[in-house]
Amino acid sequence: MSTAFLLLSAFAGLCYGQSTFTPLRPPSLPLAVKSPYMSTWQHAGSDGGNGGYLAGQWPTFWNGQVTGWTGFIRVDNVTYTWMGASDQNSLFVNQTNYEYTSTKSIFTMNAGGFVDMTVTFLSTVTPDDLMRSSLPFSYMNVDMTSADGSDHDVQLYTDISAEWVSGDHAANAQWSYGTIQEEASPRHFGPAASATWPAAHAPKSYGTKTDYTLTTSYAHPFPPAHGYGQGHKPTHFHKAHPQPTHKPHGSARQHNSGSSQASGIAYHEVYRQQQLNFSETNQQADWGYWYWATENTTSLSHQSGADVDVRGQFLDNGSLDDTADTDYRPINDAFPVFGFAVDVGSLGSDTSSTLFQLSLHQQDCIQFEGANGIETLPCLWTSYFDSNTAALEYFYNDYDTASSMASTFDSQISSDSAASGGDDYISLTSLAARQAFGALEYTNTPEVPYIFLKEISSDGNTQTVDVIFPFHPIAIYLNPTLLKYMLDPLFINQEAGYWPYQFSIHDLGSSFPNATGHNDGNDEMQPLEECGDMIIMTLAYAQRTNDDAYLAQHYDILRQWNEYLIEEALIPANQISTDDFAGALANQTNLALKGIIGIEAMAQIANRTGHTADGINYTSIAHNYISLWQTYGINYDANPPHAELNYGNASSYVLLYNLFGDAELGLNLVPQSVYDMQSNFYPTVFNAYGVPLDTRHKYTKNDWELFCAAIASTSTKDQFISTIANWLGVTPTNFAFTDLYDTITGDYPGITFRNRPVVGGLYAPLALNSAPSSGIVLPS
Ligand SMILES: *[C@@H]1O[C@H](CO)[C@@H](O)[C@H](O)[C@H]1NC(C)=O
Ligand SMILES: *[C@@H]1O[C@H](CO)[C@@H](O)[C@H](O)[C@H]1NC(C)=O
Ligand SMILES: *[C@@H]1O[C@H](CO)[C@@H](O)[C@H](O)[C@H]1NC(C)=O
Ligand SMILES: *[C@@H]1O[C@H](CO)[C@@H](O)[C@H](O)[C@H]1NC(C)=O
Ligand SMILES: *[C@@H]1O[C@H](CO)[C@@H](O)[C@H](O)[C@H]1NC(C)=O
Ligand SMILES: *[C@@H]1O[C@H](CO)[C@@H](O)[C@H](O)[C@H]1NC(C)=O
Ligand SMILES: *[C@@H]1O[C@H](CO)[C@@H](O)[C@H](O)[C@H]1NC(C)=O
Ligand SMILES: *[C@@H]1O[C@H](CO)[C@@H](O)[C@H](O)[C@H]1NC(C)=O
Ligand SMILES: *[C@@H]1O[C@H](CO)[C@@H](O)[C@H](O)[C@H]1NC(C)=O
Ligand SMILES: *[C@@H]1O[C@H](CO)[C@@H](O)[C@H](O)[C@H]1NC(C)=O
């Protein structure tokens, strides 16, 4: 692996040390990234980040607002900051390394030359384990050991602020402290049923309207919410009113050098006082209960109160006073924080470890317009656990198992990625895993699970078909059934007849977590894109699981969408594609290709389900169309020849990423000569950081570049991968992994997409591992 070396010069006066970054320094470092609402990061890129250091800058929610999270370590009466930017302490640890894997962010630090620290943030990705996937929970483990061979007197401190519990920082927060000691274990369920909803009883009527109005521009309305929060706290603050709930521990605290006596879990519970189910402010959830937990030992002290009071208490005393502030108040009024201090005692060469855990507990996750109208879908974790504390205790005690499962998962991603695209490819896939899965919400029941995707940052829509499409390679690679759990709600809503059009819907709701449909037909129309996506993804799932029953179950509506493709795909009307920011255009070569591949996919679906006449007819139409398409959309006179952005536009070119569907489904519809042509062409149009999406702009999208790389020659594939890995390490962008960037500057192209699940598309090369070798399936 390559190791980038970065000197920090911008923060003269503060010293964070010199950190190396392995395999590279990402634009933003994932800290707690497990769900749309458990998504806290550390900005690193030069557009506003601090270069990749945990200390000296507040962590933020993906959208930019501060989620206060502090770490201090006191060594022989001297306190060093290892996380966050409290202005009450100006001495910092030296960070020496940051490493990311698919599930972990690992910071290595040194406090004053006396103590070595390893802080590990673990957000698990468990594609085969619905129970663990359903918990929007995340770990932070702190290991400490003497750095100089001498024993040191050590105390550890960490807190979170109430900024986690709502994006409306004027809202009142409430909190409490508790301890539990139970043995919690999840309820067990058999495998999910193969038919995922009572299709027999559901209404089956389809929309039939075919005309639609072209909307010419789409807002991506996310003003930067960068950096407000504790960094800008009011100068005056009112004193908290500490009211002891427990007497301070009577005896001297015991040392916990790795062998403290466990007595359950201690937790701070924090929440928005007025719960607003299914509401968001600044993208954060306005409902749910947050828990900040650790082991309940005799060396633990705790305190809630104003930031300056709680942190000040630790800075003065090295411990907290076990009191609770009961002056429930706005999040930004004398910022309430929730602290833990651990008296490690005498620290020598034995490693002392303390595990902390953050968890979000919501009962209901999604409002969904299903077969029988709008219903409330419970969060899936509520099926497994009876209470918030049972879930949190189970998760805490699961750390060893979760950590070892995570290491196995990390190794799988690393070795498969290395085999497919080398070390640079590992840098991409391992950063993408948490982000892609972090857009998912697991709902309903273990027997009938539905997974909902948030179109994070671009529009905030629920279950956007053309965002699931770029996400879907990671599901195909890791567990294709997850894709079915995402497609199900789209089928259910449209088969119930709520959507009035013949072609597929774009999304199930304008604002996550509401999947309440678009019964008025007022949606972001991308008719060709979504019909092609639905047919291609449904077949991709069914091929890999041999679930032809699923194809039969949904045959009628798939056929309806295919009829639309037959009418519209060859000569596409003026419309937008998934790259809506690039504007509408008629005769888009790449969009037509998606539609034609969709028709051939439908031919295979027909054959797999015994619709023999349709199978013959659709096969013939697709082959006819693909011949014509080659005469319309390719500039054979150019040197080298290449596909055009739109038919007959000789000076234009395009990333022909929709060709990936032909390879993924093993259709062999498109001649190998087209693959070879594009593979030869791309190297002639690389800019410093990649190949532009098309000739209209200098920007590109790395998900689509990897779709192209996956089906290119080895040398072209390597060029895409090494160029994008290089970009990822040097881009000035500072939010979570953007997919859209300028190929010359490496920066945002005026649109700051961030943290989008489409980075699942970086797994396109790995999704091809399971591609069928033959495209012909004869009716049985
Ligand atoms: C820390 O401070 C306390 C109180 O001032 C003192 O008793 C103790 O010796 C100091 N410890 C070290 C290692 O300096
Ligand atoms: C950090 O490292 C620098 C350079 O080695 C050193 O001068 C400084 O004292 C260290 N700071 C801390 C807090 O350890
Ligand atoms: C938590 O720890 C405290 C102090 O050791 C102890 O008094 C209390 O009983 C513990 N709580 C539980 C539930 O075990
Ligand atoms: C919010 O959800 C909770 C949990 O399902 C429920 O008990 C409560 O009544 C809901 N609140 C409103 C206002 O619907
Ligand atoms: C979802 O719908 C509810 C009404 O049922 C509304 O209160 C809430 O604000 C909506 N959420 C979003 C994110 O728009
Ligand atoms: C904490 O320190 C303050 C002075 O800094 C002192 O007045 C107070 O007694 C100490 N509290 C405890 C519990 O040690
Ligand atoms: C689209 O392409 C077809 C076939 O080349 C052509 O006949 C038609 O005029 C084109 N439409 C537009 C709007 O350019
Ligand atoms: C093939 O499908 C098209 C589109 O539905 C239809 O118009 C045509 O009649 C079909 N041909 C045959 C032979 O079924
Ligand atoms: C041809 O492509 C260019 C971008 O390269 C675009 O600006 C132009 O509008 C296109 N021309 C036509 C006639 O569509
Ligand atoms: C479907 O089956 C027919 C024979 O009935 C065959 O000619 C055709 O190639 C098959 N199409 C696909 C896509 O498998």
TrEMBL record:
Superkingdom classification of source: Eukaryota
User: Basic residues bias located where?
Assistant: 233-252
Leader peptide range in chain numbering: 1-17
The Glutaminase A central domain covers 422-765
Q: Where is this region: Disordered?
A: 227-262
Query: InterPro entries annotated for this entry?
Result: 6-hairpin_glycosidase_sf (IPR008928), Glutaminase_GtaA (IPR052743), GtaA_central (IPR032514), GtaA_N (IPR033433)
**Which terms are listed as keywords in the entry?**
Signal
Give one Pfam family.
Answer: GtaA_6_Hairpin
Q: Name one GO biological process term.
A: carbohydrate metabolic process
The Glutaminase A N-terminal domain sits at 103-183, 254-416
Biased composition range(s): Polar residues? 253-262
Q: PANTHER family attached here?
A: GLUTAMINASE A, GLUTAMINASE A-RELATED
The name under which this protein is listed is Glutaminase A
